[in-house]
Amino acid sequence: MQTEFTAAQLRDPDIAESNGILRTCVHCGFCTATCPTFQLLGDELDSPRGRIYLIKDMLESGRPATEEVVRHVDRCLSCLSCMTTCPSGVNYMHLVDHARSYIEDTYTRPAPERALRWLLTRILPHPTRFRLALAGAALARPFAGLIPGEGLLSQRLRAMLRLAPRDLPPPGRLELPQVHKAQGTRRGRVALLTGCAQQVLSPSINEATIRLLTRMGIEVVITRAQGCCGALAHHMGQHDPAMAMARANIAAWGAEMDGAGLDAIVINASGCGTTVKDYGFMFRNEPGDWPAQAARVAGLARDITEVLESFGYAPSAAPPGLTVAYHSACSLQHGQKITTLPKTLLSRAGFTVREPVEGHLCCGSAGTYNILQPEIAGQLRVRKLGHLNRTGADLIAAGNIGCLTQLAGDALPVAHTVELLDWMAGGPKPATLP
């Protein structure tokens, strides 16, 4: 793709990066075949290629973002399926992230939209606030159908109430800052990102992770100063809050690396993993030693399945005789390029694993997408659940809390991959299974 940025514009490192990405695109359109929003809406501007044209024009002109650009960029799930399909290696993730930051700086959204986005970024990354918000939402959940109107605000309010769980699990004790000692001879030492929303919605995921790793001889550290990975704010274009959250994590894990040392930083929510593995890029232009520290953290970040494989996961229980429909989270298969490993581990644990058709398409969760774009997210959910049900499986497994929340409630029981692996290696049966 030919670009026409001025020399002055190219002195901006973000513009220079986006210019290189834009020039990689060859207009082939392969991305349209695997883009969920294009599949649903059939609008070229709701495909990666169409959005690339809009972003190019916006950045080259230097003008504030228009309503048209914002509408079509907002509809992007950041599922990154286009990056898996692209034969030219276009880094659409970095381009659309830059576009969202530019939009946030130059476009004034309607007041209700600004209020909702402010609320989401002030509540979801903070477990205590999120728990209080969900407790209130649970009381209002039965009245979701009484919210009048079909406007976007009404749809969003109904979506938030529908997503609120009927019953919240009690706070997990294992997730508090501490060191979980390895059982037997210590074979390794890792830090665990406990996350934010996941702590509230399903503390059993972190508990299963800790149990399984310590039984395998791996010491697990929960650092005191860690918090949200920053993905939620980052993908909403809120650069400074995202960087502040990432900076806290880098400092916390860096101290452990310089102290007793770490073999890995374990992440069991693949959406978080994709972001932490990108810390090196996010901090590339920061002053001082932040770029080196961020790159060091990113280089140690591992999905839980990568760590289990490297330390030789082996089941100890008899095969359960269950068939698992494996839902491959977009952030895992497209963002981190981890595709076969979770299925291999589940098979090793004794499960029969089946994959749905259109396994490359998003379920519609995508961080806060199922709140901000509830109609499209709802259509993708119905489509995904239909394919999963048709596998004839007994349950659904996935490696991301957002997907598990999106797919729960109306079909097969859901469980995190690590909960199933822990069960087959001596842990308890996941509470979500009958």
Characterize the structure shown:
The protein has 434 residues and is an alpha/beta fold. It folds into four domains: 7-106, Orthogonal Bundle (Fumarate Reductase Iron-sulfur Protein, Chain B, domain 2), CATH 1.10.1060; 111-163, no CATH class; 178-309, Rossmann fold (3-Layer(aba) Sandwich); 315-423, Rossmann fold (3-Layer(aba) Sandwich). It has 24 helices and nine strands. The chain has helices spanning 7-10, 13-24, 36-41, 48-61, 67-74, 81-85, 92-106, 111-123, 127-140, 152-163, 197-201, 203-215, 231-234, 239-258, 270-276, 279-282, 290-300, 304-310, 330-335, 341-348, 369-372, 374-389, 401-407, 417-423, and strands at 178-180, 188-193, 218-222, 264-267, 301-303, 323-326, 352-354, 395-398, 414-416. The strands form two sheets. The chain has a five-stranded mixed beta sheet with strand order 1-3-2-4-5. It has a four-stranded parallel beta sheet with strand order 7-6-8-9, with helices on both faces. Helix 2 (13-24) packs across helix 7 (92-106) and helix 14 crosses helix 17. The longest helix is centred in the middle third of the chain and has 20 residues, at 239-258. The protein is globular, with a radius of gyration of 21 Å. The mean pLDDT is 94.
